[in-house]
Amino acid sequence: MxxxxxxxxxxxxxxxxxxxxxxxxxxxxxxxELPKPKTEDGEEDDEDLDFENFGFSNVEDDEITFSAGGxxxxxxxxxxxxxxxxxxxxxxxxxxxxxxxxxxxxxxxMKKVVVxxxxxxxxxxxxxxxxxxGTTTVTADxxxxxxxxxxxxxxxxxxxxxxxxKKNANYLLTIETMAGYILELTNDL
Length: 189
Description:
alpha+beta, 7 helices, 2 domains
């Protein structure tokens, strides 16, 4: 598993499916021991690193570099990585300063790894073979894919609050009903 895959896993666990990918990234950082910033006077700040001034300078599969700091803190450039053996995201390096590459479209990157509930779909052409005779067969691998994706729907929706369920009732009912049908139908295959 690489860093972006871990970011996706953590964000799914925090159940942030409102399209707020910046907030999702901050959820990921909740479990990372970040360095303490200095105040403008050069003293170590008693407060945690703030994200009022924030920007990405590098986003790759295995490392993300960003800058952060509050209005009264000296900004830090931080590179995080993922240690698969320890199952932990950690600070690989940091320095004082600020770097921001405005060309990095972090939301676009996050959309590839953080799948909102409404985007969890099973495409028929991915899971069903239709031979020329007109009969339908489902391979064991494709059956398992269908079951995994249906189960993923229930995993993704089980952590929603009552308010989130009420707000998204129409599509949640549809997607959960479809997932239930898929699980029921694939039992007989």
